[in-house]
């Protein structure tokens, strides 16, 4: 007989026992874990807040998006990409691949199940995962899943981050985050400011340029920009190869030298490099370098204007920290994401059994 802490009421919601792990998230990581368990005959349940697998790719990415790394580095276990796929598959191709992966391994997530909390109950030594259905005939119904193992596979990009900037609420133009951006077609002929100079910011600016818009990109901090390929080989692949034989600091120096040879000195255009190398920065702070796919050329030609940080907004203008004012129609925040796991996963310093 189970005995639950926190005054658990077994009649407050439907209770489901899962004899294997509960996996939260049906993106690439969640699907890969589920496939591995399926191959070993281990039962599991996959909970997904959205109504599809890979919801981030399906619902929150721009149309021109392609994989930044060659397909062999992005394929999931036991299921290579189709041979006719290009080196860098498109958004649609990657979504098709993930849906085929779920079908091949007979992975059937429970969609529209939003995890409200997940807590390890020390009394019964089980995880208690509470969900609520957010769509369909079962909308509002609550379920509690009981299991010995919990797999968190929700990724790092759950919640878009928009910085608080003075006057933003007074701005009368369009304001959106990069996760809601689809194509530059709707911005044709408009004056657009893109806040952020990471991979998303660079690609959004490039896409805007390709739709006859001259965007301004706000560069608030230093950033590493590397060519996507060096001498026909993926920069990532080259880095991984060198790391087999050379220390990380030396690989960083080689990458930066090659980037300087190919892209030139970008500091004169306003892109300053961090003092720490790109691989070390990724390892220590989780900051991913930008892999250039054409934006640097647009920066050189001034089709993408680099501007300093924003001081404040007004109804139709943005004032920069250097005092310059720019009249704009729209602002796109390419300012990253945060994980939502801390909001629902309750973790204390407890003795959780390890297997």
From TrEMBL:
The chain crosses the membrane at residues 245-263. GO terms for biological process: auxin biosynthetic process. PANTHER family: FLAVIN-BINDING MONOOXYGENASE-LIKE PROTEIN (AFU_ORTHOLOGUE AFUA_4G09220), INDOLE-3-PYRUVATE MONOOXYGENASE YUCCA8-RELATED. It holds the Pfam family FMO-like. It comes from the Eukaryota. It catalyses: indole-3-pyruvate + NADPH + O2 + H(+) = (indol-3-yl)acetate + CO2 + NADP(+) + H2O. It is an enzyme of class 1 (oxidoreductase). Belongs to the FMO family. The lineage of its organism: Eukaryota, Viridiplantae, Streptophyta, Embryophyta, Tracheophyta. Its EC number is 1.-.-.-. This is Flavin-containing monooxygenase. SUPFAM superfamilies: FAD/NAD(P)-binding domain (SSF51905). Keywords: Auxin biosynthesis, FAD, Flavoprotein, Membrane, Monooxygenase, NADP, Oxidoreductase, Transmembrane, Transmembrane helix. GO terms for molecular function: flavin adenine dinucleotide binding; indole-3-pyruvate monooxygenase activity; N,N-dimethylaniline monooxygenase activity; NADP binding. Pathway: Plant hormone metabolism; auxin biosynthesis. Its cofactor is FAD.
